[in-house]
Specification:
This protein is an alpha+beta fold and 138 residues long. The chain has helices at 2-20, 22-65, 67-83, 119-124; strands spanning 90-93, 98-100, 112-116, 128-129.
Length: 138
């Protein structure tokens, strides 16, 4: 409530001062707005340049490490999915605590690492069923 009253007071005071000094206000704005546009544009260009150079450096570093290492990591992750059990009935997302059918697109997430043999064990572990692939399950 204090913020509302403060905002209303500022609005009234600003309207009174604007009506008294409208010419001066317009004169100041005419000088300040172009400067703000120039500074804002310069900052935007600089930040874009920095971001692009960081992305290029990251890309060069990843190429220097070699794609074979990255592919090996992906294979290891796929194998860990397969090695956790023969083929679990459900995969649990350890971040959202939602479990999915293995055929669900969301089960392919990197965070779906918890295997469950059945719905009951997933629910007892605190996971909720996916509202897309397990609609109507509870």
């Amino acid at each position: 409530m204090k913020k509302l009253m403060g905002g209303a007071g500022s609005l009234v005071l600003g309207a009174i001062l604007f009506s008294c000094f409208a010419d001066d206000f317009v004169f100041v704005c005419l000088g300040v707005i172009p400067v703000k546009l120039i500074v804002g544009g310069s900052v935007a260009i600089y930040l874009s340049y920095v971001r692009l150079s960081e992305e290029l450096n990251a890309q060069e570093n990843s190429e220097a490490l070699g794609k074979d290492e990255n592919q090996g990591q992906e294979k290891d992750q796929d194998q860990s999915h397969e090695e956790n059990s023969v083929q679990p009935a459900f995969w649990g997302n350890t971040q959202s605590l939602i479990f999915h059918d293995p055929q669900c697109n969301f089960a392919q997430s990197k965070k779906c690492t918890q295997p469950f043999p059945d719905k009951e064990s997933a629910i007892s572990a605190g996971y909720s069923p996916c509202s897309i692939c397990l609609l109507g399950s509870s």
